């Protein structure tokens, strides 16, 4: 029996590999290869109008220019990453709280699965228009002479327009939360729906309060969904430059913005170097997140 | 949108190339007659008007396919995708990057019928009256000619090989909302005046924005540059530091990169003073909102753009392109541009296509004899008003510097990045 199983397993392994092959090839061609190119280009030299294929660390050293001189202050790149990380943390916390609340409501308060489905679909409505349009539609609302300021002044709550509504940290966070909460809702909802209801009944029977049940039963079981949602939110915010640009009035630096400026100036190697740095930092964050929860095991 | 256009046109060029190859081997007139005349025109949205395209098609049977991208992306496309367009409308300052790449072909001045009529602003750096104008930065005169057809070196003396055939140019200054400011503005220094805290904006295109900043620095008396358009590293540091300080103190409401953004900022009252382009001011005004292209005592920052052909354009396509460029200089387009507040390269032919009172208002700085209308027919100015900055000679004569790519461009872009990140 045991000796028979080995070739069968090997056979299985080969067919499994064959099945995975197309996806593997797609990944190799459209992900691994471009990534290798980006890494290679980041070590090349350049001038005003061309990339020169000779090895140099210039793109990296210039990216970290002044970092030693300015200690203990932060140089541009560190400041930019610190600011991007701050936005990331704020957006993550807000989308998590809102997303978890929405998912919790859908999973435990909406009884009929038909309504669960309908309401979950309602959450997707903002996605029927493009990302950029959803963002831009905030501008007439939040502007100095926008609807919100107009309303506040008509109600005599304010005698002058509120300036920080638009082109500010606030508007950037607002737009991100608007755009990204859904990415939290879906995986968390998925996790919550898979929780065995008898566990909650057991907790209730054992005398746990609502808060204790939430904290010790529901939340730990929702972890995989939270981590997956967090990965979406963190990677999107870390790499974004459009939302920062439009909602921040192009004034707020972000890791993605550095890359964009270098690309616009035709300086591909430093753009590539910054992409590599961004990728490395994002991977570290994801590694930390997956350390907290082993997604593979939980799924 | 532009990608889509591009996709369509790439197919066309393959078809066109096939037809050309066929035509070369078997010269049959029937093939030529059926071939649609299409030119892919790469440029910024500012210069790409649907009306010009319609008129060209009516006059010459050439169909213009616009590929509209931002200023920086025009440069990027020319360098990285020379096959994706036939004709490019680009700024003179970009030439320092474009010409060495070898992706543009030199323009044969002998094929341009009105080449001798092109304003001496381009060929000699002076007004038609002979007055010298500001030469700092990448003045067109410095990069107008190449040493030879295949050369990538700029010639200081005129040759028969031009880098670009000029289309439009203008003298830029600050745009203001006189209704919200309520007092006269006379100096570039006002851009960083704390009175306009949170209500100022600057252009986020490094090559242009740094020049505006330099105008401000000189206006405040902090420093006088040997050449604003070619700063030393110390000067770049000083200039960007000044911008950083202003930014940290909340001077700027936003930065803009695209024509429409500047119009929206100004029209919505988010900003009351900002770097601006003339047709953007016109656009704000045509919404019935007071906006002035304010002449300043330190002078104007000027720019110019022109046509060049992509390296690979040859044969009939090349002929059409020259045909189109000759048409562009022949008057109709020039009049169209002048009516938006731009200046056309050949003044005589544009004048012949404009009514006497239009010419007097736009070019001679005289009060409008009757209502002035935009090219699309909307009312711009009531009878009796005078153009901001006055006549062509006053405005172009007041040019202090040109948009520029500096020798220290790479360093400047890094410092500009720091400013954005500050």
- Classified in CATH, the superfamily of the largest domain in chain B is Periplasmic binding protein-like II
Order of helices and strands of chain A: HEEHHHHHHHHHHHHH
Question: What name does the CATH topology of chain A carry?
Answer: MetI-like fold
Structural class of chain A: mainly alpha
> Mean of residue pLDDT of chain A?
89
Query: What is the annotated CATH architecture of chain A?
Result: Orthogonal Bundle
Q: Compute the number of helices of chain A.
A: 14
Major sheet description of chain B: 8 strands, mixed
Tell me, briefly, the overall form of chain B. globular
**How many helices of chain B does DSSP assign?**
18
- The overall number of domains of chain B is 2
Distance between the termini of chain A: 31 Å
Cα-based radius of gyration of chain B, to the nearest Å? 22 Å
Oligomer: heterodimer
CATH class of the largest domain in chain B: Alpha Beta
Spatial sequence of strands, sheet with the most strands of chain A: 1-2
Distance separating the two termini of chain B: 34 Å
What's the count of strands of chain B? 19
Describe this structure in words.
The complex is a heterodimer of chains A (299) and B (422). Chain A has 299 residues and is mainly alpha-helical. Chain A has one domain: Orthogonal Bundle (MetI-like fold), CATH 1.10.3720. Helix content of chain A is 73%, strand content 3%. Chain A is built from 14 helices and 2 strands. The longest helix of chain A is centred in the first third of the chain and has 41 residues. Chain B is of the alpha/beta class. Chain B folds into 2 domains: 221 residues, D-Maltodextrin-Binding Protein, domain 2; 164 residues, Periplasmic binding protein-like II (D-Maltodextrin-Binding Protein, domain 2). Chain B has 18 helices and 19 strands. In chain B, a hairpin with a 5-residue loop joins strand 17 and strand 18. In chain B, helix 9 packs across helix 10, helix 10 packs parallel to helix 18 and helix 11 packs across helix 12. The longest helix of chain B has 24 residues. The chains are: A mainly alpha (299), B alpha/beta (422).
